[in-house]
Design goal:
Radius of gyration: 22 Å
Largest sheet: 2 strands, antiparallel
Shape: elongated
Number of helices: 8
Low-confidence stretches: 129-161
């Protein structure tokens, strides 16, 4: 099972999201209308819910998660992103603040448990360099000079110097 991302990384992602969503609202409303409107923060929350749900469905994470190299994955291990309705529910729960603060020992908050997801580091989803080998290609039938299954890496020169 892939380990859940740290709370510090997730806090960084939500900070990026909040700043980006606030800037979108300021851009649309204009700085003076935004600063005069007492409920402008709710507009930013609405933008966050929509942005987060759409990006999570299409790209695997909100703008902030993508920027901080985090992804939302299904708990069942399927490789595809979650559907729109669960992503929308998850985003609404995050906007309510309390669900992310109530969490299990594995780091999953109520919002993750409700839609069966977890937030992980992108690096943990990719095979590490120590496990991935790339075979050099040559002409058909030509040996590339190393042993594919064993000692030679794609970047190594395996001939004489």
């Amino acid at each position: 099972m892939i380990e859940t991302a740290s709370w510090a990384r997730r806090l960084g992602a939500i900070t990026v999201d909040w700043i980006a969503c606030t800037l979108v609202v300021v851009f649309v409303m204009g700085p003076s209308r935004w600063s005069d409107d007492p409920i402008a923060g709710f507009y930013a929350s609405g933008v966050f819910v929509l942005e987060s749900a759409l990006f999570t469905t299409l790209l695997g994470g909100s703008f902030g998660k993508l920027a901080t190299r985090l992804r939302v994955i299904r708990e069942d291990g399927q490789g595809r992103p979650i559907e729109l309705i669960p992503a929308l529910l998850r985003s609404i729960m995050i906007a309510l603040v309390v669900p992310p603060l109530v969490f299990r020992p594995d780091g999953r908050g109520l919002h993750d448990m409700a839609v069966k997801t977890r937030t992980v580091r992108l690096a943990d989803l990719r095979p590490s360099a120590s496990r991935t080998r790339t075979r050099r290609s040559g002409a058909p039938g030509e040996s590339y000079g190393g042993s594919y299954g064993g000692d030679s890496w794609a970047g190594d020169s395996s001939g004489s110097d």
